[in-house]
Structure formats: structure tokens, C-alpha cells
From TrEMBL:
InterPro entries, per database record: P-loop_NTPase
Record's protein name: Tunicamycin resistance protein
Domain of life: Bacteria
Gene3D superfamilies given in the database record: P-loop containing nucleotide triphosphate hydrolases
Length: 93
């Protein structure tokens, strides 16, 4: 199962994710923002300045979630703000 915690910046998504992980056996936290930090340091940013607007970030995030699901029998808790509904739909596919 993938549990995506979406919400405004600073709302407590990471705190909630940690509490969920502590209460759910066989669960882990994956934070795609860490991929965003690497992407920001590696490739030119789009005009928006948001790494989520880069197909590279979306592709790497999807690949990482797929690999986690394939290699670990655990629920994945993802605390990440997604503003664009199209990106959420893509990541859910």
C-alpha cells in the first residue's frame, strides 16, 4: 500500500508520516523531496524554480517507488506536497 500525505508546507506531513510508521508494522517512509534536492544540484531548473516541474524528478520518483514496492514487503508512506493534480495522477499510475 502507498499512503501519500499531501498538504501545505509546514502542516506536519513528516510528523504524521513518522507516527504512522511507528504504528504500522512493515511500513517505511520515502521522501521524494530528497530526490528533488539531488535534481536541483544536477540539472538546470525550470522557469518556475520548482523541481516537481521537471520530468526527471517525476520519472525518478516513480522509479524509486516502484523499486521500493518490488524489493520490500512494506507499506510506503510518502509525505510530499503536490500542487499539480496532473503530477499526482501520473505518480499514482
Amino acid at each position: 500500500m502507498i499512503i501519500w500525505i499531501n498538504g501545505p508546507f509546514g502542516a506536519g506531513k513528516t510528523t504524521l508520516a513518522k507516527r504512522l510508521r511507528d504504528r504500522r508494522s512493515k511500513s517505511l517512509i520515502f521522501d521524494p523531496e530528497e530526490i528533488g534536492f539531488v535534481v536541483k544540484e544536477t540539472v538546470p531548473m525550470p522557469a518556475s524554480g520548482d523541481y516537481q516541474d521537471l520530468p526527471l524528478w517525476r520519472g525518478l520518483t516513480i522509479a524509486a517507488v516502484r523499486e521500493i514496492r518490488r524489493n520490500y514487503s512494506q507499506d510506503i508512506i510518502i509525505p510530499m506536497t503536490l500542487v499539480h493534480p496532473d503530477y499526482l495522477a501520473l505518480l499514482q499510475s
